[in-house]
Amino acid sequence: GEASLSDKGSVFQTGGGGTNFEQAVQTAFVVTLIIRGNVPCIESGELTEIGLQVKKREYETDDLLAIAKNPTATHRLLIQIKHDISFTKGNDQFKQVIKDFWQDYNNSAIFDRNRDKLIIVKSGLTKHERNHVKSLLNWAVTHATETDFIKEVERIKAKNDALEVFHEVLLMVNNNNALTDNEIWQFLRCVDVLEYDFLNEGSVDKTYFLNLIKLSRRKDSELNEVEIWDRIFARVSELNQAGGNLTIESLKNESFFHYFENEKL
Fold first, then answer.
1. Do the strands 46-52 and 64-69 form a parallel or antiparallel pair, or are they unpaired?
2. CA 81 to chain centre
């Protein structure tokens, strides 16, 4: 959703910054798919398919669906890309994302709570988000019971505040039906937050992906890594409009694929 004019993001969004950020993240995942790379949040999970704008596939969380396989299972990452979301109960974007997450999380036809992940991607985390929201989500995974988790969180006010925000927003999206500590803990175990700095001049993440393209492109390719990134980015823009998807097989039909050293991949 676009921000209203009163939001500080409006000028930026009118200039397409939000869209550019979303497409840069999607482009990074396409590069990962081409090089048969691993995705964040899944231990040695090789990316096998991505879907863009997947509302028509029954998902509420629709910016990016990444499907990854590791030796034991197939995992789905449902990704919402919001460059400037803030993790506060007054933030409409945050409420909408949690609402969509909660719906998908409770739909067992499309979401497996033991394997799948709900991910918010942002262009930069604030100090509070990095120290407290991100570690709250890490703790949910690393603590074996909700009692251990809650006990640990309650020791630190800022973490307790972050948990309270999730609690209150979940209550809203659950039609004000009370949730147990266990239900909240189980949900947070599936949620993660990632940051990519694609909007910065001198972006570290973009350089990282350009290096991957440089290492895997054909030596006789007439395009350099920046031009190849731009071709993929343009194609992602088309796929977004069509709600398209890409698999390791279907990639072979994409014009940008022949810039890569297929034998190496």
1. antiparallel
2. 6
